[in-house]
Design goal:
Layout lengths: L2 H27 L5 E4 L1 H7 L1 H38 L5 H54 L4 E4 L13 H11 L20
Parallel strand pairs: 1-2
Helix pairs in contact: 2-5, 3-4, 4-5
């Protein structure tokens, strides 16, 4: 055996002796790592609080869509009437009516955007209320189970089933926040014609 081979052999022998001992010493100084996994989307979807607001959200979206459709229909009719009047109106009168129609269309578009923003804000504030309670409940579960880390399930490729605390968190969230209401006080009702 040449000198290089002897040196490699001695180095491997030293590593084999000292690394396990160093590992034991290091492991004794570090607390055990408790890991839990939670499917946040499932909790948000299946919790009683989320289910309690779902019909309201669906109804508000349908009502909003109905108003938008009525507004679009009204604008289409006004545009068709304007097109019919083009042949009988003087160019200046037609231009003035066209400007008025354009202003109404812009106002209608702004009204729709404002109402959509208000509805989204109300829905998001409600969802954030659920999330705040979810975080509190998740912290309680982590403390009780001595978990150092809770990881969202969508970031985990493979895990042991026993690490999943989703159902326990959802059950506790249901007890803590069984219902939640959407605050529509800041949401404007909107005008089907687009005017305030």
């Amino acid at each position: 055996m040449n000198a290089f081979g002897k040196n490699i052999g001695i180095a491997l022998f030293i590593v084999a002796i000292f690394v396990p001992a160093a590992g034991r010493t290091f492991a004794q100084g570090v607390p055990s790592l408790g890991i839990g996994i939670v499917d946040v989307q499932k909790v948000l979807r299946d919790s009683k609080a989320s289910k309690s607001i779902r019909p309201t959200i669906d109804n508000m979206r349908k009502e909003f869509q109905k108003q938008v459709s009525e507004q679009e229909q009204s604008l289409r009719q006004a545009e068709q009437e304007l097109s019919r009047q083009r042949a009988i109106l003087a160019p200046e009168a037609f231009a003035q009516k066209r400007r008025i129609f354009s202003e109404q269309a812009r106002d209608a578009q702004k009204s729709v955007q404002r109402r959509r923003r208000d509805l989204d804000r109300a829905f998001n504030e409600t969802k954030n209320e659920i999330l705040k309670s979810l975080i509190i409940v998740a912290q309680e579960v982590a403390t009780e189970k001595k978990l150092n880390i809770l990881i969202e399930k969508r970031f985990v490729f493979i895990s042991a089933k026993k690490l999943d605390v989703t159902d326990e968190i959802r059950k506790r969230l249901d007890k803590r926040l069984p219902k939640v209401a959407i605050d529509f006080s800041k949401v404007g009702k909107g005008d089907p014609k687009g005017r305030k």
